[in-house]
Automatic annotation (TrEMBL):
Domain Fe-S metabolism associated: 12-130
Listed InterPro entries: Fe-S_metab-assoc_dom (IPR003808)
Short name of one Pfam family: SufE
Family to which this protein belongs: Belongs to the SufE family.
UniProt name for this protein: Fe-S metabolism protein SufE
Organism the protein comes from: Flavobacterium enshiense DK69
Superkingdom: Bacteria
Length: 139
């Protein structure tokens, strides 16, 4: 699936919920299903700067695509990074760099986060794009 197709799936899933209490519960549930980062990658180097909570993101390349794993010590933040991992993992660096993140606005996530969590979300997206840039430059 392309990034856009995955983002559209996420938009469709969020549109099934009537209110933000249900949507936040869904975000929490997504975090519970997040494939966890290996403990060896929970390092300062993999920590997202600018997040109120601890968030670790690790990236490795397999067959020309980037595979992301992540974790967080906060349940909402863990759900947010799960959404981003789902949207961008197993995609080429070029696809990740060219992808927009409008789906975040379409599901209304950023506007329902506290300012510090919204800043953290932006930092997570930047880090994912930085990994893609690094892998693209390496190739």
């Amino acid at each position: 699936m392309t990034i856009k197709e995955i983002q559209n799936e996420i938009i469709d899933e969020f549109s099934m919920f009537d209110d933000w209490d249900e949507r936040f519960q869904y975000v929490i549930d997504l975090g519970k299903d997040l494939p966890l980062i290996d403990e060896q990658f929970k390092t300062d180097e993999n920590t997202i700067k600018g997040c109120q909570s601890k968030v670790w993101v690790h990236a490795e390349e397999k067959n020309g695509n980037i595979i992301f794993t992540a974790d967080s010590d906060a349940i909402i933040t863990k759900g947010i990074i799960a959404i981003l991992v789902r949207a961008f993992s197993n995609q080429s660096p070029k696809s990740i760099l060219e992808a927009d993140t409008d789906f975040i606005d379409e599901i209304g996530l950023k506007e329902h986060l506290s300012p510090t969590r919204a800043n953290g979300l932006v930092s997570m997206i930047k880090q994912i794009k930085m990994y893609a840039l690094a892998f693209q430059a390496k190739n």
